[in-house]
Records
---
Amino acid sequence: MNKKRKIVIASLLKPVDDPRMYEKIALSMSQTNKYDINIIGFASKNIPHHPDIRFHPIFSFKRLSIRRVLSPLKYWQKILQLKPELIIVNTHDLLIVSCVYKTLFGSKIVYDVQENYMANIIWSSNLPKPLRTLLAFTVRLKEHLVKRMIIHFLVAERCYMNECSFISNTSTILENKARRKDMLLKRQNVDRPAGKDHEEPLKLIYSGTIAESYGIFDCLHLTDNLISSGKNLHLTIIGYCPRRDTLEKLVLQIKNKPYITLIGGHHPVPHQEILRELQKADFALISYRLNPSNKNCMPTRVWECLAYKVPMLMKQDHPWVPLLHKYKAGIALDFSHPQISALPDLPDNTFYPQAVPDSFYWEWEAKKLLKSMESLF
């Protein structure tokens, strides 16, 4: 029997059971029985068990802290211990350390480009503009400096091929689509008895990262408007909020509003729990505040809604609205001044009259992943 190739998948910013690292990349590779997979990242609430995947939750720090600056040293110690043949780096913070390891010990480096970090930093509001600009160009310089040492690029968004000039021709686009096997609940259209429609609230959901740029406060505004107009509904907010000031503002705004429930917030929520809540919803809210860093991207939550046939309420200026109309996957709204009559009391069979293509699922991407990994050895 051939010896398994030792692989490390590492992120400084994600938990070890992050959906892309574990549920998509690691699980897909484990099915070949060719790889000994190790995932390095943050601790998680419920770390899964898998015979071919080991989890190393070595990171623990606040977003801006000295412990974050020193974290690459902990990573260095761990890869010295593991001695991987291939490292899949998921954040720019670990690129330099990984390339030093490659120089000394010959490991191959794959860069999983999950974000356009330069654009994200420039268009964020976390730091003063001059500091954001300096940091953004420092990150892009780092990516250019190490690009010749990277054997292959995995690219999470098609637009990054044009936006990220450091990506070479040796690349594979792996979009963040939903896995078929994640369908833990069967969505059914259940006819409610006559007269019951208005007794059961319409279930809305905001899922994933909780952030102002993702439109969390626009969702609150929409929900309050619908409630004021007489709609019977309930909003579930589920996910992690990385900024304390945003979470404090959110908690203050939903105080004394029994029609809004927050799950998570100050801690990451297991992805499977998010998917279970998503599939219970009548409508998912898609509310991103567009800027040059995200206007050409395809959000994971849109892929998940399409895969699980969850109708969406989407901002009418979003570039994904044509896709919404093509598959009759929801309603485009002005979140600031919603047309109340456009929102039914309950979703009906007019949504998703036809199946979405196989290419909308992660399994389509997994084939490309396995082919690219096979070519590296």
Note: Residues 129-146 form the longest helix (18 residues).
---
Amino acid sequence: MNASTTTSRTVEEILTAVGELRSSLASGVAEAELVRRLPYDSVEALRASGLTFLRVPTLYGGPGATLPDLFGAVITIATADPNLAQGLRSHFGFVEGLLLRASQADRERWLPEVLAGRIFGLAEAELGVNDPTQWRTTLAPDAVGTLRLNGRKYYSTGSLFADWIEVVAVDTAGRLTSVVVPSDRAGVELIDDFDGMGQRATASGTTVFTDVAVHPGEILHGTDFTDSDRPFNYHGGFYQLYLASVTAGIARNVFDDATTYVRTKARVANHSVAASPSEDPYVLEAVGEIGALAFAAESVVAHAAQRLELAASPGAAEETVIAAAIDVAKTQLVASRAAMEAAERIFETGGASATSSALNFSRHWRNARTIASHNPLAYKARATGDYAVNHSTPPKNGYF
């Protein structure tokens, strides 16, 4: 690697920089969510910190962080702003895909872009189509042989922040293929139209591709979306644990808001047994319960991250990968329920004043509920139960 594609920053330096940014990343988030203001400045601050190339291996000039390092950083960011944390999920998923299954040529093509600070988005899902092989986005040559990308994608998380967008399309042979195009190339339209009740600033809107030129070096290799016989890999678990990490950050954010609110709130209930909220045993009990829930969410994420790190090791047995996927599914169950319960209990730390729109405490539940709705928890519980009873392999569909 030459000097332009290496970094002298260590894992510890990057994680320290991210931690030091936490306060500024959190500034104004409650109000920003009310008006749905996307955190562009925060994305740039994290780009400058080196976070975006945290997982690039030392072999390719990066700091070589572990998965526990990354997911710990995600929790830190989500504690400040869960929208910001989720908005970078596609970027880290793209990098992980390069490490897992891309060709050597693809790694040499794209990892220098990551090291240069470029951010990658994802445009994959389509409305009204359950079978990916039936997606309507196409990649086909025009009259002069130039490949052209045409289609409409939904839930393009992070693409409004991105320099490059990975797009999954169907080629002329009916095969799913993945290409990477600049977000500002002619024919790419990014639409900020996501209208979810929570996680409203994750840049998860619609992306439209109209006769977008795709060059040969922008086609990814080593990506097989249809081979049901392929060994189970950890990439789906990576994406799912990323969401669980964001959820754990929400739970800790609830705890931080609860403790600050109780310390600074001036009035207790008329029938309180204490002179101040910070002395009220029932308020303190609520804060303690919230703290325990946040601790549980972070703890299960940390455990699953260690298991996923083993699954990501070269030569890991398929059973190790499957067991890690099951642990990630359990983690989603625990972290999601812990965050939602914590978000509900924050209102027990105060009376009607705790429901003030200015505080926007309701965002915590809306955010946690929205993430949990991405991948229904009932299916996670069913898969873990089926594995325990029948030793059944979870689906190879990216959700495990």
Note: The radius of gyration is 22 Å.
---
Amino acid sequence: MAVPDSTVPATSHVAGILHRTYLWVTIGTCSLVFLAAFESLAVTTIMPLVSRELDGAGLYALAFAGPLATGVIGMVAAGNWSDRRGPAAPLYASVGLFVAGLLIVGTSASMPLLVAGRLVQGLGGGALTVALYVLVARVFPGVLHPKIFAAFSAAWVIPSLVGPFAAGIVAQVFSWHWVFLGVVGLVVPALLMIAPVLRRMPQQASAAAGTPWAAGRLAWAVLAAVAVLALNLSAQVHTPGVPAATAVLAVAAVVMAMVAVRPLVPRGTLMARPGLPSVILARGLASAAFFGAEVYLPYLLIEQYAFAPTFAGLTLTGGALAWAGASAVQGRLGARLPHRSAVSVGALMVLTAVLLALATSALHWPAAAAIAGWVLAGGGMGLLYPRLSVMTLALSTKDNEGFNSSAMSIADSLGGALALATTGIVFAAFTTTAASFAGVFGLAAVVALAAVSVAPRVTTPSP
């Protein structure tokens, strides 16, 4: 018999997230999420210009893969620190690292220095995500978690509408340096909005606070980061006369990543054990399916349907708007939409969208099928993403909120990174463009099907 979904009360008189009790912490946390998302999208827009100016084509891929890899280390460190002492110190440290990375990148005169700044940025950005999740658990009551995570989703999605255009304008009118330096001036005020809450938050007094640092988990995080980086770089390896070299490197990196991730997630995650392990696994699978397919959708429209790049990019905008809309809807529905139902329906929507993209590429269906499908995919992610965040906190205690939040973020990061690198290898393996697109969307569909199969296992035990 299914366990009832009881983490969100059916009725509550708790003030909303914009009530004066929570107003500034809501604005501050959402601003930090917004700025991290804006910077991530801005880099994609201006990096070709940066690479050309700094003569850094050889380090182009590393500028993207590096922050993803170091972010895993930041996630584990922030989770461990938060469990020991609460989220205040990790949040200050993560913002400090993020700002330091922005300053290094924004003042870089060479590509190696820029990549070094990106590595520091990724370390701070990964830690920031985990610290914010723990802060939400400590400040907001459980009934408001769906709403604050819906706000986080909107704060992440909105930059996809304005970020690339704004970054291009700043780079053209001023300099690409100000795309990074300008964000620094906005991060500090956002942190100041949260500072009063952090000052009132006592250091965590628990058995975990006196335990030593989990050095072993940090070591596994470093190994996982190396694996992510190796897999991303394997997609760039083309060894003349040795066609199997890329595949061997990729398989080795995947195996290393799977070995390294086991101590970083709840026991039973890779086996889809019901409860929290399946919540974490579903998050990783959904990320892998969605982002693994999303990066190839504009490419498909440009290559096979002769779309202009700007028009092809609007497809992603449609998905982003649907994500934000569905996040708002699930937040308003609260307990009327059970967690397991939200996750199951959301995963099925993502699978349907990827299958539409596969049919469009393989059977030459009208482009409208893939475009409409991606709006459906965005809606699916908007339903399941916030609910998986809510369930992670609902299934955590004060002693393991940091570990579980970092596990969820690691699942996001590793899921997306492994999918992007693997789809890159699959795309290069076929001899025709049509077959390459079909292979990519076919792989994403298999991952989405796995997410659908895991979704019913994300049960929440009764309190």
Note: The radius of gyration is 21 Å.
---
Amino acid sequence: MNGSGRTKFKAAVIGAGKISEEHLKFLSLSPCTELTAVCDLSPSLAKYAADQFQAAEAFTDYSAMLSDCSPDVVHILTPPQTHWRIVTECLSAGSHVIVEKPVAISRREFHELWALAQKCDRQLIEDHNYRFNQPVLEIEQLVNDGTLGNIREVDVRMTLNIRGGGRYADVNLPHPSHQLPAGVIHEFLPHLCYLALRFLPEDLATEELQFDHVAAAWSNHGDDELFTFDDLDATVISGGVHLHIRFDCWSQPDCFSITVRGDRGSSQCDLFQPSVITAIPRKGPEQLSPIINQHKAGSELKVAARRNFMGKIRQRTPYEGLQVFLDRTYFALQEGADPPVTYRDMDHTLQLTEALLSEAGKV
């Protein structure tokens, strides 16, 4: 599965919604890609995206796009309910596929798609973009070099005001994610799961994950029927490592935090206001370590405040990791190497997702 020595890939995008801007930005600037087509059911949206990002053509029928353009890589950015059908056709047409999460509604569907990808000698890669945000990569390095010791607890928390207006709260034009088994939270759940699993010790991340305990409280604290759930509080224990996954739309301010605790230290970040705060034993008397950690945390927060302020001015978003993910993915395609998100990454994410959904009777 490689790029056969090609220096550029003909790339196409199906779905011109909000997330497409990030994909199209990469494709229009990358030296590895030639943006050949944008496809969307809306003719005006497809044409607008194609014109804005200098795509060669705009389509409303992805089958016609595959036939006319024969893209090497297709980015599928449509609602999850459509993924199985569109991914199947793209793989069968000979295209590698990069697909937004969740790659499939169920683990069974994913296995079917993966088997087809192997048969067609094509790559199937799910977007795990937040894994490649700089704060996450920094914590991952602390874990890998043993700074935090043996990992004992991982906490991933997203607070997002999805009820406060906007695309998820429109009763007259419900967002497609409301049709997912767990509603809107289901759309965000893969992010929470793959980030939690990223810090699970390697000896526990075997082909089939083993859960000693799974408990998930799914709630709807609202007074309408639009949302299936608007709150999730879950705990998963595997081999003595506790994973805590939380989604909350009622608290403020919005945050997307990750905390990793080991038997030597802990590290935490917030992807919406990027910074990394680490507490570990420091050189000198043991009693001074907390003071040194506080000093370093204060310094980091000051630097982060200035950096984030400039980021706002430059319109940097939490999608910074998506550009890294896509860059590494296309490099892997060129080199015939394993992509940055592997079969096991995708399969484990779906396995944990289904374990949590089963607690709500949604599997």
Note: The domain at 9-127 is CATH 3.40.50.720 (Rossmann fold).
